Inverse folding.
């Protein structure tokens, strides 16, 4: 069918009942053959509806208007309703003894929607429009003073480069004026999606989200906590040194004395990655001889050239070039003439290699890394496109997020030399600088990732109610990150909403997993190519053997438990944060020396 006809037919489906057989059509007890036919019909329907939802979603996010939101919401509703409806009808087969492959599809169907609406046309419509509205408030949000309005992009630049605490505080608080209107919408969305999760037999949405890891939700939460305990000493040491350095820079009056770091001083709008304050925390003896931002500025004339270099890395591993349509249809920079959702994302519109990236790329180090992150998504999507519909996904959602980051861990000085960005590899003494810079991003990120979903798990389970949304957020920020609000907060604020993934409804535990998995993957690939010496100096650039391993894992999609995919990649079957601890061991030694005589902790 031509795409135009698919769109028409899918929108018509909005007004007509689903075509898969309803249980009432069927007489007699369920059979395995019937279950198989049911699943085939479900997968066919999902393939079609998903493409329409992806196309309208792309349009709504790259051109936010009343109409695009409406159409995207409608397509999304049809797709989500079809999913929950099929899942509820699939219970007819739950007592059957199905082969593991088919059983896995039925399990996947129940978990397929991370935002499941109630199985009701009107309520599902409401949920989809709320979703569009929340995304749009975030995407179009600006902070205005008089006639001058600043976007998140402009405010983020202040957070990254300004060293004036007053200016930083203003940008920090300014962005958080965007989210309070989300609060009632979010509260209603939680109600609706919890009902949707309950319709599918889960306790609530937290139970559903945590059920997607080939283990029980309780086991998953316990594993997250266990991994956190492993890296906590490393984080505490980093937080302590950074805090002391920031106190030297800004003084006790600004930093305070309770052991936490005010969230506006860390170089990032959410204090989730800290490498932008590298210059403030690195003493002269660990100074780097090059500045990645400057290298990017000097060597890449535009965003597209940064993407080309990213693609070349994947191609050097033996993977395919990106299709022409990628270059024609992607959005690499912020358009001047319309409103878009700037938060970077990678899309697979269909299984016919129509993959795209939507980004408002800036020519800096952070976005160079993000490009590799996003390309990782697209390469993963192309690798599992041949799988049946319900297995078109990563082994678990952390794998998807880890893929491109794993490649980024290979952006070493040696690789920069090969690219011609650096003349020669810096001496071994500079390894510490590299490690500190990376640690400021990767180690600092871990407790932040925990906070975002611990907050939502509490909200979904009812442990945290609307009356305490903001207080609950800051309690977790304080507890895990040792970070505090620089400006008085109250329940008139809705600070979780100022982080993209909350209004967008994207689960966040995946990034916590990814920040561990990528170090496991990096080590395994470096071992596989016979790398000798510190892992900080290993790059898999130009190593097709590493590419083959990645491809083999990606091609599995979600057809097997993630532990199997982990084994293919690493020989291990568990998530293992000791890979992070080992990678950063020299940094930990150095941090402990720096911290001697300091009062650490909060
Ligand atoms: O959202 C993203 C990607 C898209 S999946 C740009 N990331 C998280 C974030 O920005 O908060 C990547 C790392 C964490
Ligand atoms: Zn991602």
């Amino acid at each position: 069918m031509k795409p135009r006809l698919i769109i028409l037919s899918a929108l018509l489906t909005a007004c007509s009942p689903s075509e898969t057989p309803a249980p009432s059509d069927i007489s007699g007890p369920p059979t395995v053959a019937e279950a198989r036919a049911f699943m085939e019909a479900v997968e066919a329907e999902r393939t079609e509806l998903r493409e329409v939802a992806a196309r309208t979603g792309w349009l709504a996010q790259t051109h936010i208007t009343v109409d695009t939101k409406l159409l995207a919401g409608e397509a999304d509703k049809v797709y989500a309703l079809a999913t929950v409806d099929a899942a509820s009808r699939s219970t007819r087969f739950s007592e059957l003894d199905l082969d593991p492959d088919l059983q896995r599809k039925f399990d996947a169907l129940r978990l397929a929607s991370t935002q499941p609406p109630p199985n009701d046309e009107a309520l599902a419509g409401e949920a989809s429009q709320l979703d569009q509205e929340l995304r749009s408030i975030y995407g179009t949000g600006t902070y205005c003073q008089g006639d001058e309005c600043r976007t998140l992009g402009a405010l983020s630049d202040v957070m990254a480069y300004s060293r004036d605490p007053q200016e930083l505080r203003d940008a920090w608080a300014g962005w958080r004026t965007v989210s309070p209107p989300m609060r009632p919408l979010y509260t209603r969305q939680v109600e609706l999606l919890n009902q949707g999760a309950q319709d599918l037999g889960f306790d609530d949405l937290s139970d559903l989200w945590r059920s997607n890891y080939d283990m029980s939700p309780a086991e998953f939460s316990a594993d997250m906590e266990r991994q956190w305990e492993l890296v906590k000493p490393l984080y505490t040491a980093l937080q302590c040194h950074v805090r002391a350095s920031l106190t030297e820079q800004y003084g006790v009056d600004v930093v305070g004395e309770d052991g936490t770091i005010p969230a506006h001083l860390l170089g990032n709008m959410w204090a989730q990655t800290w490498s932008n304050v590298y210059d403030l925390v690195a003493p002269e003896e660990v100074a780097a001889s090059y500045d990645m931002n400057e290298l990017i500025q000097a060597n890449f004339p535009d965003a597209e050239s940064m993407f080309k270099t990213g693609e070349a890395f994947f191609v050097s591993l033996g993977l395919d070039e990106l299709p022409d349509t990628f270059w024609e249809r992607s959005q690499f920079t912020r358009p001047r003439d319309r409103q878009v959702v700037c938060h970077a994302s990678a899309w697979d519109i269909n299984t016919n290699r129509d993959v795209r990236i939507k980004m408002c790329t800036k020519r800096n180090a952070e976005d160079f890394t993000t490009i590799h992150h996003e390309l990782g998504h697209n390469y993963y999507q192309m690798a599992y496109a041949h799988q049946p519909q319900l297995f078109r996904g990563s082994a678990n959602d952390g794998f998807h997020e880890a893929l491109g980051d794993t490649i980024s861990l290979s952006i070493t000085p040696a690789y920069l030399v090969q690219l011609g960005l650096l003349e020669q590899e810096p001496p071994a003494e500079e390894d510490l600088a590299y490690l500190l810079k990376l640690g400021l991003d990767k180690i600092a990120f871990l407790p932040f990732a925990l906070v975002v979903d611990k907050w939502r798990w509490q909200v979904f389970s009812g442990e945290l109610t609307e009356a305490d949304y903001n207080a609950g957020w800051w309690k977790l920020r304080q507890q895990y990150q040792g970070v505090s609000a620089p400006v008085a907060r109250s329940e008139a604020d809705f600070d979780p909403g100022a982080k993209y993934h909350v209004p967008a409804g994207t689960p966040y535990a995946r990034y916590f997993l990814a920040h561990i998995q990528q170090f496991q993957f990096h080590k395994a690939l470096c071992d596989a190519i016979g790398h000798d010496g510190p892992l900080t100096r290993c790059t898999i650039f130009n190593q097709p053997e590493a590419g083959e391993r990645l491809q083999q894992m990606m091609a599995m999609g979600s057809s097997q438990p993630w532990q199997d995919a982990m084994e293919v990649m690493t020989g291990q079957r568990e998530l293992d944060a000791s890979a992070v601890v080992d990678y950063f061991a020299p940094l930990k030694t150095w941090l402990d020396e720096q911290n001697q005589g300091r009062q650490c902790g909060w």
Observations:
- The pocket of L-captopril (ligand 1) is lined by residues 344-345, 370, 373, 511 (CB under 6 Å).
